[in-house]
Design a protein that fits this description.
The chain is built from two helices and 19 strands. With 232 residues, it is mostly beta strands.
Length: 232
């Protein structure tokens, strides 16, 4: 089985990395041997593929590149699956800092991807989890690596959607939460990370009945000033 995975992986290397990068050769090492190489050299240069195995079974393979002791180029990670090796991680480095496309996944329950710029998250990042429930999160980052702009979180099974905004790493602006399954909504706003202004919670699944027998949705109104509840 291990031999089968190595054949598949050697094919991947020949297709994906046919262009010259630092050197043409790839040095094959075990996880332990690679750690020893890193410890023993501060100016390491070369392309490495590291085999992760247990009791003779290949569990994963990593491709890593160094130039004068610094991480460089595209790094890839593969994990063993039923069909062979699947891509599980992508990261790009420039002068030892993350810069460019990034991906991490277990190919089953989790996936996160986006871009780095000079070591900091930048632009739109998407995170998906498919364990107990299918959840999709989208976050936007500014040049300083801080959350900035719209954030969305969607729970597909529960029919939940949450939308709000960030400004330099803090929640700031309108907030909207909707649960279609249970007919619940929350409307409000943040100011520099704190609840501010009028917040309205509506729960149609908890109706109120007045003295005349009229049925209306449960509505709760709260007013905040800089995170402090003014009218409990």
């Amino acid at each position: 089985m291990a031999h089968k995975y190595l054949i598949i992986f050697n094919f991947i290397i020949s297709v994906c990395f046919s262009q010259t990068h630092i050197k043409d050769n790839y040095i094959k090492l075990s996880k332990f041997d690679f750690q020893e190489v890193i410890k023993g050299s501060k100016s390491i240069t070369g392309n490495y593929y590291i085999i992760h195995s247990k009791k003779g079974k290949v569990l994963g393979i990593d491709i890593k590149r160094y130039l004068n002791g610094k991480k460089t180029g595209e790094w890839l990670g593969f994990i063993a699956t039923v069909g062979g090796m699947d891509l599980a991680a992508v990261s790009n480095y420039v002068n030892d800092k993350l810069h460019g496309y990034f991906l991490i996944t277990d190919n089953h329950t989790y996936k996160e991807e986006g871009y780095f710029r000079k070591g900091k998250k930048y632009g739109i990042w998407t995170k998906k989890s498919f364990f107990d429930q299918d959840i999709i999160e989208t976050t936007k980052y500014n040049k300083k690596g801080k959350k900035h702009g719209v954030y969305t979180r969607i729970n597909i099974e529960e029919e939940i959607k949450e939308v709000f905004f960030y400004k330099n790493g803090k929640r700031h602006g309108k907030y909207h939460f909707e649960n279609k399954k249970y007919k619940e909504t929350v409307l409000g706003a943040y100011k520099q990370g704190l609840k501010h202004g009028l917040w309205i919670t509506t729960k149609e699944y908890l109706p109120e009945i007045d003295k005349d027998g009229n049925i209306t949705p449960f509505i709760k109104k709260e007013y905040y000033k800089n995170g402090v509840l003014i009218n409990p």
